[in-house]
Task: structure prediction
Amino acid sequence: MAEAVFHPPRRKRRVFESYQAPFPVDVGGKDFRICQAEIINNNVIVTNPEDIEQLYNKGYFGKGILSRSRPVYSISDPLLVTKWQGANINMPIIGSKKYQCHVQWAKSVLQQQGLDDCSITKIIENYTKPLELPFLEEDEAEQTRTGPNTENTEVSRQCSTATGNVVALSPENQNEGYKKACLEADAAFEPAAARSSEEQEQGDLKEIAEASCQKHGFLVHCGCKAKESTEHRSCEMIKSKECAPEYVLVQEEEEGSLCPADDSAHAQEDLFKKEKLVCRRNPFRIFEYLQLSLEEAFFLVYALGCLSIYYGEEPLTILKLWEVFSEVKPNFKTTYMAYHYFRSKGWVPKVGLKYGTDLLLYRKGPPFYHASYSVIAELVDDNFEGSLRRPLSWKSLSGLNRTTVNASKELMLCYLIRPSDMTEEEMSTPECMKRIKVQELIVSRWVSSRERNEQDEL
Result:
């Protein structure tokens, strides 16, 4: 058998972060913490922002449900934020089309609850109406912008308390007058300050906030429904934040005229579009959570002991997780053994579904290097026999190898060898990994012309 040649990992050209640590465990023990996750729809989800940052920054576990890898999704449009950066506003800025999409999603939620169109329209109009506050500085009210630098800036600001996205006010806005104006403006939307004729509307507004949480599948257990839990966990805090209104700045357009009194033929040419930012409440909020693969979640629980996974209200034990994950994913035991092996060797394994394999192996993490190997894991006996999960023919193996090589990776077959005397009862616990041996095999394409040239040179 030919010896495999090790190729160094291909480093990424642009790296915007520094390497912190291989695992989310503090060696000194001072900053050690146990993160929390939940099993929702057969997926392991982490909702606490601090836990998300801890798990991803130290070990690159999981991926954002709305992002490509790192959970960095924001409702703000980066282009609009750059465009209005001179306004000195630290609130999310979105376009009117995107805001209307959120309005339509909120309407669909209310329609599913059986409300009539008239009630839905009234609820949406009351919830999304513009919120205007007086400016603290008169100069800000006179600023105009007609393009990227000269458009009319009409910004209505609204302060929010206990919202999911904390609004960081600029230092000049943090004075008593502004706080008083915010409190007076918020009082109009508080149920305690509403009059008897508006109680029904306020109930509808609260209902739409809860409906927005219920629309997202991951919020069923940790959002509004979490208040039924008797245990005071972090989900109750998340519920209070997620159901609170989120204030956003919507860029809207309105037509004006540079010469209103001019009735000439050039009047149409003088028309221009004046853009402004209007503060509104977001009727449908989207939260990004960290989704862990079953192998990553079990490794954090079993190998590192820094994660506690809940199903409903109670945390699951290691044996229970081994059983549940094996039912959800029939080949979980095989893929986890391979994951545990490579992770212990210093690699960062990720799901290799997009390349038709079980795992992708990264050095340090995805931000620093491209994946070096695509791994297929198989559980066999001492004679390399067994019921293979993926019996590869020469044709399928050649196609898979070509796909892997075209992506600048190498195909690796990872054989997990179990003793012949190992019973199914032993396999029912993760302690069976102590008797498992691993054999790695790198598959490379044989090029006859290349070998012939090498023979001629010798």
